[in-house]
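Q: A reviewer asked whether we had any structural model of the full assembly, not just the individual parts. We don't, so I'm hoping you can provide one. Inputs are below.
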Amino acid sequence: MTAAKEPLVAMIGNAGAAFALAAFASVFVVHADAVRADEPVTIAITIKDHQFDPAEVHAPAGKPISLSVKNLDAIAAEFESDALHVEKVVPPGREAVVRVRPLEPGRYTFFDDFHRATQGVLVVP
Amino acid sequence: MLPSLIIVFREVFEAGLIIGIVMAVTSGVAGRGLWVAGGVAVGVLGACLIALFAGALSQLFHGNGQELFNASILGFAVLMLGWHNVWMARHGRELAAEMRAAGEAVVEGSKSLGALAVVVAIAVLREGSEVVLFLYGVAAAEGGASVNMLTGGLIGLGLGALVCFLTYVGLVTIPTRYLFAVTSTLIALLAAGMAAQAIAFLQQADILTALDQTVWDTSWILRDGSFLGRALHTLIGYVDQPTAMQLIVYAATLAIIALLMRVFAVPHPQRQRAA
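A: Here is a predicted structure for the entire assembly that you could use as a starting point for your response.
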């Protein structure tokens, strides 16, 4: 039993170590140009009738962003975005503040995980 | 009907994968059914409480209540999973021998069962609270719980339970001599994935800002939100756009668990067998 287990565990351990090294290496390359500016740009978004309003928002590159998401529906929403690394439940009638790190130019989609058809995009020119 | 079916199935499916693994890990240990059922019951109760106080929870800690809560319970689950694996590395062999001999391992086995029951409770609580929030919202919008909604929910629950069962059956068909190896690998990956997810919540709450750049993007191969993406997210912590800190913590969790398993493993198998 142990004979079968230990090589597997060791394999995971070794792969893990290699992975960590690779991650570290890539981090220091990327990290050099990431300069933080402190003032967040605030953007207000409301959810009503399963629609984001506005469905397309804009923000400058390289600045932290604060999305304030207000849910005007009677149903809870889950504001989610893979690209923005966000996953937050917004109970009915409540407002959630979602902080986003400084972004590179691009299009970052977000959606309501409880109603997949509810989609929006954050555009960073 | 369809929205409630999909949401309920999706969440039960995620919890079901974890419960299926736990059932397979503990196969043969007496009293495990009670422990797992207890975990599910506590999880369901917790889910209702979390959903009930979702509004209040989200206002805590300057609006970071949800994130901190999720990160904490995920962190706790990681500890329980890690501890289970280390415990099994030390006692698994004697436990299996005892169980085969006389089934006297109940007391010993339940130590580790307790840890896994906590993991089950946390999984059910996390996924369940979303189900409760969603169904409550649907009921509120429709002015009461409708037959449609309940039917959808029940079908979703049934399908999710089927996934749990299939996971279990799939795992226990693995020959016993590999089962420990496979399940401890699964548990370690589960723990690493949860640790990385806890990091995501801390990053979202702006508590952890170091190394939060996205390292790669595999969403063109497999999206997080897709069915397979979700399954892999639950099982091995797959994320299509991981941050550097998530990768480091993922790898570190695996490495630490593997190391501790090695350190605490019974040192001399020969002597052990003789005794």
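A: Points you may want to mention in the reply: The radius of gyration of chain A is 20 Å. Chain A is about 25% helix and 45% strand.
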